[in-house]
């Protein structure tokens, strides 16, 4: 834009009455910038629940001892009755590959007796069931390992689902009663396994009853959609749009997952907004990162404010332009495509055009100087129309530094405003979303993204790094045997 076109005398008309230098308006600069879409960010929601209460409940619900209470009981078609006693050790819990395994060791002692299948008294023993064999009696008890596997997952419908399946019993020391070769091991382990299956079914059902997280999700979702007013007529909006949930992990004491709310957080001009709420989306299973977070902050400056601040620097001043004096009588800023257009009304104080007035047009590109915290104008130059007309005034006007003066002094201080908005946003990020649910945010470094000329002025967009997470009181969920406060 610094190349001066050939002189066009017809564009410079000097009126002896008005003493006015007429310079044509520049051609329209086109539409302004469309602000780029807000970048997504993830608000972390780590969920951790202590499962020890639940596991202790499982251990309590499975009997520590089962048996025949000392009485012989017939089993199968053989004329054999069996009495047994089984004790078990406390359950031992182990997490492996996302599955919680519960294991106990059974200790078995058993005796078998023979009776007359036809009811006819036998010689010497009559109708008495005569003991004929035993195992674990007068010797170390026989051992059987009984175990279950529990997998817990988050369903897309916001429900916690627990699925428990038994393992096949593992006999360490078989209890086989001779001479009929009656194997009591499998029979007894199945009896205990039925008790374990009953207890774990109750556990799965209890988690299913308590594991509906949708009401909580809806309350948190509504809290995240609420717009929070800040200083200077700005507001914080998070604009959540999706929810991700990592697969649940288990260890011997804890169930964990990381939920991530995908949002487009921003500080924007305008008070608290009442946007139409969107329904809670389904959960999407995906790996979720940490609680890194970035907030977009838009500091808008209207053309009127740019005009006011620039006018304070120039209007009424007489500039020395390459040895000639020019008085600045007016200044107005407006949009010129993706640039700023400055219409500067001047009066020539000497030379051949002394006393005459004119309006020259300069165009510059707005930018944000983060080090100074200022909106500045760069690459300032005359429009082609002003360049062409000012050739008639003299090269001195073009060389005289008006461009440099605009670039040096047309600065809008925004640092304090950005700092206030950042502080307000950090305070707004830390708040209660629902009972037992709190969002905590912390903001750090500010990085400029750009300055954009819009229909109403210039918007400076910066990115503020930080963290944001939602902290949930796990006991309030009631998933692990702890009752909710209202129960």
Care to describe what's here?
The chain is an alpha+beta fold. The protein has two domains: 1-48 and 228-479, no CATH class; 62-210, no CATH class. It is built from nine helices and 30 strands. Strands 3, 4, 5, 6, 7, 8, 9, 10 and 11 form a nine-stranded antiparallel sheet that branches. It is rod-shaped and about 140 Å long.
- Compute the number of strand runs: 30
Shape descriptor reads: rod-shaped
Largest sheet: 9 strands, antiparallel
Question: Overall pLDDT, averaged?
Answer: 82
Count of spatially separate domains:
2
Helix content: 10-25%
Count of individual helical segments: 9
Unreliable sequence segments = 1-19, 480-487
- Radius of gyration from the CA trace? 42 Å
Topology of this protein?
Elements (H helix, E strand, L loop, with lengths): L19 E2 L19 E10 L1 H10 L3 E3 L5 E2 L5 E9 L3 E5 L2 E16 L15 E6 L6 E13 L5 E7 L3 E2 L4 E2 L4 E2 H27 L3 H12 L2 E2 L4 E4 L2 E6 L3 E2 L3 E10 L2 E4 L13 E3 L6 E11 H12 L3 E4 L2 E13 L2 E10 L8 E13 L4 E9 L1 H7 L4 H5 L2 H8 L2 E2 L1 H15 L1 E4 L2 E17 L3 E16 L1 H4 L10
Parallel strand pairs: 1-25, 16-20, 19-21
Antiparallel strand pairs: 2-18, 3-5, 4-5, 5-7, 6-7, 7-8, 7-9, 9-10, 9-11, 12-13, 14-15, 15-19, 16-18, 17-18, 21-30, 22-23, 23-24, 24-25, 25-26, 26-27, 28-29, 29-30
Short structural description:
With 487 residues, the chain is α+β, with helices and mostly antiparallel strands. The chain has two domains: 1-48 and 228-479, no CATH class; 62-210, no CATH class. It is built from nine helices and 30 strands.
């Amino acid at each position: 834009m610094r190349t001066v076109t050939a002189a066009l005398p017809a564009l410079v008309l000097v009126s002896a009455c008005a003493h006015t230098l007429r310079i044509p308006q520049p051609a329209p600069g086109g539409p302004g910038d469309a602000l780029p879409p807000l970048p997504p960010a993830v608000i972390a929601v780590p969920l951790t629940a202590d499962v020890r209460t639940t596991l202790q409940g499982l251990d309590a619900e499975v009997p520590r001892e089962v048996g025949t209470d000392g009485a012989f009981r017939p089993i199968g078609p053989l004329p054999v009755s069996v009495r047994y006693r089984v004790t078990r050790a406390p359950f031992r819990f182990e997490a492996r590959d996302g599955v919680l395994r519960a294991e106990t060791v059974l200790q078995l002692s058993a005796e078998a007796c023979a009776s007359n299948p036809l009811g006819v008294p036998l010689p010497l023993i009559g109708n008495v069931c005569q003991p004929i064999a035993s195992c674990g009696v007068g010797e170390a008890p026989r051992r059987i390992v009984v175990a279950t596997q529990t997998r817990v997952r988050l369903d897309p419908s916001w429900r916690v689902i627990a699925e428990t399946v038994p393992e096949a019993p593992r006999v360490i020391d078989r209890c086989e009663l001779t001479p009929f070769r009656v194997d009591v091991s499998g029979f007894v382990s199945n009896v205990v396994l039925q008790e374990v299956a009953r207890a774990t079914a109750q556990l799965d059902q209890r988690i299913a009853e308590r594991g509906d997280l949708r009401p909580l999700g809806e309350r948190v979702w509504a809290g995240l959609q609420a717009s929070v007013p800040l200083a200077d007529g700005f507001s914080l909006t998070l604009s959540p749009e999706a929810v991700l949930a990592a697969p649940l992990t288990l260890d011997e004491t804890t169930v964990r997952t990381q939920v991530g709310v995908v949002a487009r957080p921003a500080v924007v001009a305008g008070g608290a907004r009442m946007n139409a709420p969107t329904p809670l989306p389904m959960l999407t299973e995906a790996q979720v990162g940490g609680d890194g977070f970035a907030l977009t902050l838009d500091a808008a400056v209207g053309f009127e404010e740019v005009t006011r601040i620039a006018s304070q620097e120039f209007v009424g001043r007489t500039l020395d332009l390459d040895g000639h004096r020019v008085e600045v009588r007016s200044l107005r800023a407006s949009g010129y495509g993706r640039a700023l257009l400055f219409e500067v009304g001047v009066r020539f104080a000497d030379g051949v055009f002394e006393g005459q007035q004119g309006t020259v047009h300069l165009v510059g590109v707005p930018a944000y100087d983060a080090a100074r915290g200022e909106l500045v104008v760069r690459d300032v130059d005359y429009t082609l129309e002003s360049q062409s007309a000012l050739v008639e005034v003299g090269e001195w006007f073009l060389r005289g530094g008006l461009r440099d003066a605009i670039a040096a002094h047309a600065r809008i201080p925004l640092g304090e405003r950005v700092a206030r908005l950042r502080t307000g946003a950090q305070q707004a990020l830390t708040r209660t979303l629902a009972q037992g649910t709190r969002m905590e945010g912390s903001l750090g470094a500010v990085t400029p993204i750009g300055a954009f000329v819009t229909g109403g002025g210039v918007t400076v967009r910066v990115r503020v790094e930080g963290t944001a997470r939602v902290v949930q009181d796990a006991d309030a969920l009631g998933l692990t045997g702890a009752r909710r406060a209202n129960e």
